[in-house]
Amino acid sequence: MQEQEIIEGNAIIAVFDNYNIEYVNGKRYFTLDDMVEALCDEELHYHSSWDLLMPIVEKIENLKLSTETGDNIYFRLVIIENEVRIDKRNSRLAIWENLIDIPIDIRRHKKQAIWLVIVEFLKWLKYQK
Asked: What is the pTM of this model?
């Protein structure tokens, strides 16, 4: 992964994680309502920390989107032998559908694939609201 891709992906996750974005002298900072100090882009480590990434997985799996027809859409993250994916399920149906999948291979290990599927999911989610 390229450094800029990591920075932008971590920023997308931080916003989903309830961080606010503030700009000071052209530099981006992330704050929480109860935070004394702000974090800069280089201090976000979702891409390299299981401790930061796993609560995001749980938040996605607890997420429920309501549709115009009154149905609910649920999500789950699935890790199998050679891919990580996020599936969705409509509350009226018992079938999980693949929404986004990222391969695991020699160039991308499991943590990277999980981080990337989360980033791609959050990009998709942005356009659903």
From this structure: 0.91
> SS3 of 76, please?
strand
CB 53 within 8 A of CB 111: yes
Cα separation, 43 vs 56, in Å, equals 17
Cβ burial 83-94 (10 Å sphere, 16+ → b, else e): ebbbbbbbeeee
Structure tokens at 99: 């929404």
What pLDDT does 129 receive?
67
The confidence score (pLDDT) of residue 119 equals 98
Length of the chain in residues, anyone?
A: 129
Report which of 75, 88, 82, 76 is spatially closest to residue 113, judged by C-alpha positions.
82
